[in-house]
Design a protein that fits this description.
- There is one protein chain.
- This protein is of the alpha/beta class and 448 residues long.
- The protein folds into 2 domains: 2-104 and 428-447, no CATH class; 139-417, TIM Barrel (Alpha-Beta Barrel).
- The protein has helices spanning 3-14, 20-37, 43-62, 67-74, 81-87, 109-116, 120-134, 178-190, 209-224, 238-247, 263-266, 272-284, 301-312, 345-358, 375-383, 403-413, 428-431; strands spanning 91-96, 99-101, 141-149, 195-200, 228-232, 251-253, 288-290, 293-295, 320-325, 363-366, 386-391, 436-439.
- The strands form 2 sheets. The chain has a 9-stranded parallel beta sheet with strand order 7-6-5-4-3-11-10-9-8, sandwiched between helices. A 3-stranded antiparallel beta sheet has the order 2-1-12.
- The protein starts with a helix and ends in a 9-residue tail after the last strand.
- The structure holds S-adenosylmethionine, 6-(5-methyl-2-OXO-imidazolidin-4-yl)-hexanoic acid and iron/sulfur cluster (SF4).
- The site of S-adenosylmethionine has 17 residues, from loops.
Length: 448
């Protein structure tokens, strides 16, 4: 790549005084002309420039705000997942520091098992490199959870404190009032949270008309506060998913939990296919899919690989994949099973690293179980590619690290939270051309 092009790109990226609005067509056209006239530019280098121009175009087209915000926005990819994916439509694979990666939907179990079983140092190197090819590692999303309807669930998930089948510390409580939920969301926002996730201990929304009306009010209320809104309410049909989308829902969490083979040993009251159907209803409604699983259910390594294979071969990878470590709850079959050991930090890291490699554009969420890991162990998980956590002193019913301790940890590690309703930061390796991006085929895309 010519030095003039590199310095032009850097000027665009780093210039503090440039308004993104002013960047748009003239500068992009000028960049295109420089690109078109330089015979020495190789194909993959041209693509690096294409990507940069695509991000700049998106930012320039949508920016109406101040210089600082404009520059900030200019560093970000489009927030809408379809627009974001469209930027990379013709991308084949990425390479950096001897590692290749791509967004694929045809992963086989043996391929994933091979990655999962790499020597730990090689797995970490590969995952951390993939992470840096696709993401800015300084940004880690923080979501605040609230249980809006606790306990008394008719499902028999054998890890769960909220199932009515088991006698646990949880005292069932009715659905919270809309006003109380919005007050809690406001407190989370004031504390700096940008995403609010509401959980209900239901098998399904089903015929709960009144409760659903209230939930739609909660969703639109939180959305109006400027926060991203997520729900996890059990199974949804297509109509309910569309209603939630219309009310302003950003994302829906519905986990597969484990592999299809291990699943019936953990849950008997709803099938794997039921879960896949809900995920597809959520996807079809245009809501971001948050779908992952739990380690510590007595599963084998092949079940962990099996779960990742199902996720990585969905028609679209989930926008986020939560990886939970079991929080053992007394009174539940798994919590009381002495043969099931606590989740090892290296196993948790392996799972996160493998998820990062097989779904490079997915946000990997280090979810339940952080209290059982030291800060250094959690750092290993961020280094393996985790870029989201649940914050707040409580998860749904169990404890989570102290909110202020998490903020201190973020400061120590140099992480910032992700702002609401903004796409992820462009990976520095992409902005400065360190990562090589190879196209599927064809001539240079027309810029501007
Ligand atoms: N009731 C809804 C459902 O299951 O679809 C939503 C809430 S449920 C608590 C959300 C997810 O939290 C579960 O699918 C499971 O992956 C995770 N989870 C629940 N209890 C857990 C525990 N004790 N330890 C770790 N993760 C847990
Ligand atoms: C997810 O995968 N983990 C979060 C969120 N989605 C809703 C829930 C974890 C729950 C942990 C057990 C509890 O607190 O009851
Ligand atoms: Fe009910 Fe969800 Fe708990 Fe299963 S995980 S028992 S569906 S609250």
């Amino acid at each position: 790549m010519s030095s003039v092009t590199i310095s032009f790109m850097r000027t665009l990226i780093h210039a503090k005084k440039i308004k993104a609005k002013a960047i748009s067509s003239t500068m992009i056209r000028s960049l295109s002309t420089k690109m078109a006239s330089n015979d020495e530019i190789t194909d993959h280098q041209r693509v690096v420039i294409d990507r940069f121009v695509a991000a700049a175009t998106a930012a320039a087209a949508t920016t109406t705000s101040s210089t600082k915000e404009a520059v900030e926005e200019f560093h970000r990819l489009p927030n809408d997942v379809n627009e974001r994916n469209a930027v990379y439509d013709d991308e084949d694979f990425r390479s950096m520091a001897g590692i290749n990666a791509s967004v694929r939907h045809n992963w086989t179990r043996p391929e994933i098992a091979e990655i999962y079983s790499l020597p730990f140092y090689d797995l970490m190197y590969r995952a951390a490199t993939v992470h840096r090819m696709y993401w800015n590692p300084s940004e880690v999303q923080q979501c605040t959870l609230l249980s809006i309807k606790t306990g008394g669930c008719t499902e028999d998930c054998s890890y769960c404190s909220q199932s009515s089948k088991y006698k646990t510390f949880v005292k069932p409580t009715p659905t919270m009032k809309v006003k109380k939920v919005l007050e809690a969301a406001k407190r989370a926002k004031d504390a700096g949270s940008t995403r609010f996730c509401m959980g209900a201990a239901w098998r399904e929304l089903g015929g709960k008309k009144n409760a659903f009306r209230h939930i739609l009010e909660m969703v639109s209320g939180v959305n109006e506060m400027g926060m991203e809104v997520c729900c996890t309410l059990g199974m949804l049909d297509a109509t309910q998913a569309k209603q939630l989308k219309n009310a302003g829902l950003t994302a829906y969490n519905h986990n597969l939990d484990t592999s299809p083979e291990h699943y019936p040993k953990v849950i008997t009251t709803r099938s794997y296919q039921d879960r896949l159907d809900t995920i597809s209803n959520v996807r079809d409604a245009g809501i971001s899919v948050c779908c992952g699983g739990i380690l510590g259910l007595g599963e084998k390594e092949s079940d962990r690989v099996g779960l990742l294979q199902v996720l990585a071969t969905l028609p679209e990878h989930p926008e986020s994949v939560p990886i939970n470590a079991l929080v053992g709850v007394e009174g539940t079959p798994i919590g009381d099973n002495e043969d099931i050991k606590g989740v090892d930090a290296f196993d948790m890291t392996r799972m996160i690293a493998t998820a990062r490699i097989v779904m490079p554009r997915t946000m990997v969420r280090l979810s339940a179980g952080r209290l059982s890991f030291s800060e250094a162990e959690q750092y290993l998980m961020f280094q393996a590619g985790a870029n989201s956590i649940f914050n707040g002193d409580k998860l749904l019913t169990t404890d989570n690290p102290d909110f202020n301790e998490d903020q201190k940890l973020f400061e120590k590690l140099g992480f910032s939270g992700k702002p609401a309703h903004q796409g992820p930061l462009v990976a520095p390796s992409e902005a400065d051309g360190t990562v090589e991006i190879t196209k599927v085929q064809g001539p240079i895309a027309e810029c501007a």
